[in-house]
Amino acid sequence: MNFQLIGVNHNSAPLDVRERLAVPEARLPEAIQQLVQQPGVEEGLVLSTCNRVEVLTSTSQNADLRAFLRSYFGVSPEAIQSHLYELREREAVRHVFRVASSLDSMVVGEPQILGQVKEAYAVARGLGAVHSALEALLSRAFAVAKRVRTETAIGSSSVSIASVAVQLAEKIFGSLEGKTVYLVGAGKMAELAARHLIGHGAQKIIISNRTHERAVQLAEAFGGEAVPFDRLHEIAGSADIILTSTGANEPIFRREHGERLLRGRRNRPVFFIDIAVPRNVAPEVNKLDGLFVYDVDDLQSIASSNSTERKKEAERAEQIIETEVTRFAARMKSLAVVPTILSLQEYCETIRQAEIDRVRGKLGHITPEQEAAIEAVTRGIINKLLHTPITTLKSSAAEPEAATIEEMVRRLFNLSNGKPKS
Amino acid sequence: MPLFWLRVALALYGVGLVYALASFWGGRQVLTRITMPAVGLGMTFHFVSLIENAMLSHILAPSSMHEMESLLGFVLMVFFFVIYARYHATAPGLAVFPLVFLLTASAALGTTPSAESTPLFVSAQWVYVHVALILVGYSALLFSFIASILYLIQERNLKRKTAGGFWSRLPALAVMDDIGYKCLIWGFPFMTLGLISGAILAEARFGPRYFADPKILLSILVWLVYMVLLYTRWSAGWRGRRAAYLATFAFAVAMVAWAANNLSHTHRFIAP
Are B163 and A299 in contact (CB under 8 A)? Predict the structure, then answer.
């Protein structure tokens, strides 16, 4: 069982190299079909996302995957030599596990990659390009990815300011469905954060900006409502989330505004996201019951503590993967001795049958009971004799001398190399 | 047999207890997955135990403190699952599981009622109605209290801007707020009717003098505090710290009223 993998990813290759190797979804089947026609390639799969292009194969002998790159993509592998990685066996298995578990992703822990791997697998499987070996590898990879996700907190924390803001808003409001977001100031960052909030269900967007035209423009883009800047405090009461990003030198929301706000909304909470520097919301507003103020530093420090957390979790995930790789390799090796065991059993069975046929002529008429007894006796002898060699083959499969033992057994019993004739 | 089923239920509630305790040291996903089925099953056995008990003693009303505890534990579990079904919040379990475990453990020490145990009160069915109503009212108050405390913890977390850690897995503020409020609203009619039924029963037995009894007076105080709690929530939208303080006070009064059984002359038909 040989796994071979060749590919480029966001670490190894710049975008222009990845672009040259990318396979559009529509052309994926064709690429896979061409791949499995390569000499030596038994099974094949192509994974192509914006961050990586990888060709994974199971081969009967050494296959020249570079030749495939040359013939299919028309790129000379020598030219992109420094960007390519080529992995075999254990390294290939580990890589597939890491990719599926999102440890090899640009944003470690992002959840999309597993879906993309599953997609690539489904396409290749649909074409009949995946059988036993890749099937075993990938189904194990999916299980490993699931294990990593449930046993580590790798995908649970947000690492960008906008996603931290969304996560906090969800901690306050549960869901953002039906919530109103008020943008005070309509800069690029505010727009980005608003997009995130809308993406998570926020319903209504109100925008005020010193330059009213910009507010109107953004309101159109979001399907929101633009309100003149001087009506700021009047409007603020209807918003659950207030995102401030104006260039004001003094805070525009102070304690007394906060108190008025709370009275007006019967103490329902308000979440202030203040991404302005200097701050637009006075820090003492945070002291009021039901008002939550997060400035840019707060968000940033949560984001970076999350990414430290993520790194720690990633280390734990690497350990899980290491044990899984070892386990998988052991399983694969124990599968590798199966043909030898089968041919050994077949060899003995042939001898047994031949001997029974030979002796039957001499015995003349025998009763069914006697025949059954002969069967049982001969079978019993064979089984007892074979018991130790077979268990030794199985138990030594994961050890380095496995190949030697296997070879010895084949020579002792004069078994032909290759699969038994059935 | 009812005691046997109760002990089975107790063992299953033990899983809930372990879950609650383990959560404080960063609970494991595996535990979360087995806890809900385990305590759900426990609740089923608990129900069986209650029914068998009633059939054995031929009366519905709990006739001892142990049976009372058993019934209260069961009502609390029902409450927990109603909330779980509605909000998918397991956090109240952190407080409820240990409490139910203790109640059930204490109840499991009791003895199986014999068929001879005589109803202690003539109109036993009415007592049962009274007890059931009051227990639901108390449970509602307890859940509202738990939700307030969890709300407070989550609010403090958000104010201090500390992400991560065990408490970060609590449900959202809005969810806790809703649980607290809904529990109060649903519990109030039960509490009110429970008090009225109790008053009618006592009037029938003792006449007007029943009123001047610590248990009765405290119960009325509980009801008043309950009403204030509900009113401040409803009219001024009190939540967070103020609501939590008030809920704590209400719960403390309720505990005193519960304990006042030992001082009461008219409310002693439940033999301790």
Answer: no
Q: A–B: how many Cβ contacts below 8 A?
A: 56
The whole-model pTM stands at 0.66
Cα dihedral B125, B130, B131, B135, rounded to 10, equals 140
CB-based contact A224:A205 (threshold 8 Å): yes
pLDDT in tens, chain A (422 residues): 588 999 988 888 888 888 888 888 888 888 888 888 888 888 999 998 888 889 999 888 788 888 888 888 888 777 788 888 989 888 899 999 999 988 888 778 877 888 889 989 999 899 888 888 888 899 999 999 998 888 887 776 676 788 888 889 988 998 899 999 999 998 888 888 888 888 888 989 999 999 999 999 999 988 899 999 999 998 999 999 999 998 888 899 999 999 999 888 888 899 999 988 888 999 999 999 889 999 988 888 888 888 887 888 888 899 999 999 988 888 887 777 888 888 889 899 999 999 988 888 888 888 889 889 999 999 999 999 999 888 888 888 777 777 788 888 888 888 875 444 43
With beta carbons under 8 A apart, name residues in chain B contacting A287.
159
Residues of A whose CB is below 8 A from B245: none
The answer to whether the Cβ–Cβ distance between B158 and A172 falls below 8 Å is yes
Residue type, A73: F
Contact B243, B148 (CB under 8 A): yes
Chain A residues at the B interface, defined by Cβ less than 8 Å, are 150-151, 157, 164, 168, 170-175, 265-269, 286-287, 289-290, 292, 294, 298, 301-302, 305-306, 309
Which chain B residues are closer than 8 Å to A151 by Cβ? 29
Tokens 């690497």 belong to A318
Give catalytic residue positions of A: 50
